[in-house]
Amino acid sequence: xxxxxxxxxxxxxxxxxxxxxxxxxxxxxxxxxxxxxxxxxxxxxxxxxxxxxxxxxxxxxxxxx
Length: 65
Prior knowledge:
By secondary structure, the chain is mostly helical. It has helices at 2-10, 14-22, 30-59. α1 (2-10) packs antiparallel against α2 (14-22). The two termini are 31 Å apart.
């Protein structure tokens, strides 16, 4: 849903934006943006840690980052 909304913004797809807002799937507010950004930042941090651990195991080296 978030990716679709982002793509609609990037491509100027007003119909998709209006539909997402009308159905309540997305709230185009600063607070909603900040909450999504925090969630995505946590996801990225977790993915970085997991990839680093798995690379270290697979390559038998210290964690690369």
